[in-house]
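Key result, reporting period 2: structure in, sequence out.
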């Protein structure tokens, strides 16, 4: 082995063929929470956050498929309540996650606390604390497609 390769930490790990469903759902929610965090941070600084996605279009004249980078609108999961407090709901797909029995929103307080609360929620999702709530929201979402 060369001197450069000996500086690396080698392991006998193998890549799994498929992730468990609970991990897939957790990763999906973490991605969306990250977008909400970026949106909240940009709004706190008075800037606009517009992420882009690649979309495939068929050219009208030639019929050739073209990949274009287009801006995507992100709907914020937070809003100002009746008393002036900032509220945050966690969504999985189009369904709000019920965090406790009958409670679907987090009272953030002031808008300045929003990024800190989103970071806390991201940590909770990473630790698997919302796995049962994500599972129940996923079941409700799938039932909507069966009808």
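The corresponding designed sequence is given below.
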């Amino acid at each position: 082995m060369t001197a450069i390769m000996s500086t690396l930490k080698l392991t006998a790990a193998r890549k799994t063929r498929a992730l468990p469903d609970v991990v897939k759902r957790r990763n999906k929610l973490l991605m969306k929470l990250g977008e909400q965090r970026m949106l909240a941070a940009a709004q706190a600084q008075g800037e606009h956050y517009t992420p882009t996605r690649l979309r495939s279009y068929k050219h009208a004249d030639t019929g050739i498929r073209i990949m274009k980078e287009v801006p995507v609108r992100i709907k914020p999961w937070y809003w100002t309540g009746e008393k002036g407090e900032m509220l945050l709901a966690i969504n999985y797909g189009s369904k709000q996650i019920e965090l406790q029995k009958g409670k679907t929103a987090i009272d953030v307080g002031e808008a300045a606390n929003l990024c800190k609360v989103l970071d806390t929620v991201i940590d909770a999702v990473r630790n698997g604390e919302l796995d049962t709530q994500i599972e129940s929201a996923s079941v409700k979402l799938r039932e909507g497609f069966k009808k």
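The mean pLDDT is 89. The radius of gyration is 20 Å. This case is discussed further under Risks and Mitigation.
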